[in-house]
Specification:
Layout (H helix, E strand, L loop, with lengths): L2 H19 L7 E5 L5 H9 L4 E4 L2 H8 L7 E4 L8 H7 L2 E5 L2 H13 L4 E6 L16 H9 L4 E7 L12 H18 L5 E3 L6 H6 L4 E4 L1 H4 L2 H6 L17
């Protein structure tokens, strides 16, 4: 794995995608999805200038974060179980996968106990895939209203995962709808929502063209996860058994 070359290629592709639609590359934040990656690999990525990392599993993140540079920022992008909320609030600077009111209530309670306010993104399942989490688009306005009323949570925007497609153009409508939903949520709140987290290794350029502010890349930076498994770094099952967020 040549992490430096991979990162340079990704940054060039981000810049090209932004240029195609007249965006400033500074508007796009690159999140390195570090599931299955060792602290040594994460430190190497940090040495190259990456400072935002996304983790799918609370338990895995807990064992890594203390072994990595303090300046790094960590966000939760995987499906979150209620019994992991306290650790999630403690270890992460943002929870990107809030998809139900019960989960939001538990996060709010834990944030209150830890005397902090936690930024969150609402996860929306635009394609309606049964294998993925996220609220249905028609339920988003009510979830937004309910979560926005919780005093220890700050809604910063939306997160979505597009269906897998060999041709990223096929998922462009998903990303476009996510942008439209964010705009609709802004109208309901009467305030801007700064974040739209969408796009992974196979489709991040289309996501950028459709307005992504955060892209979540694992394989494009660190190489195929099968290589990490052979090195003994990624043998754990997904937390929910189905939903991949770092391809």
């Amino acid at each position: 794995m040549d992490l430096a070359a991979n990162l340079q290629s990704v940054r060039q592709r981000i810049a090209a995608a932004c240029q195609r639609v007249g965006r400033d590359p500074k508007e796009v934040t690159l999140m390195a999805v570090s599931k299955g990656q060792s602290p040594e690999t994460i430190r190497a990525a940090a040495d190259l200038g990456l400072d935002l990392f996304g983790e799918n599993r609370v338990q895995e993140a807990k064992t890594k974060i203390s072994l990595c540079p303090n300046r790094l920022r960590w966000q939760m992008i995987g499906h979150l179980q209620s019994n992991k909320c306290r650790d999630a609030v403690y270890f992460f600077s943002m929870i990107q996968s809030v998809d139900s009111l019960p989960l939001a209530i538990e996060l709010n309670k834990c944030a209150g106990q830890l005397a902090r306010t936690i930024p969150v993104l609402l996860e929306v399942n635009i394609a309606g895939e049964s294998s993925k989490f996220g609220c249905r688009p028609e339920n988003l306005p009510e979830l937004l209203r309910q979560v926005n009323a919780l005093p220890k949570l700050e809604v910063h925007g939306l997160m979505t995962i597009a269906p897998y497609a060999t041709d990223p153009e096929k998922v462009r409508p998903i990303f476009r709808r996510a942008r439209e939903l964010k705009s609709e949520c802004e109208d309901l709140l009467g305030a801007p929502l700064p974040q739209l987290s969408m796009g992974m290794t196979g489709d991040f350029e289309v996501a950028i063209e459709e307005g992504a502010s955060i892209i979540r890349l694992g394989t494009a930076l660190f190489g195929p996860r099968s290589a990490a498994r052979k090195a003994g770094l990624a043998g754990r099952p997904r937390e929910d058994g189905t939903d991949s967020r770092d391809i």
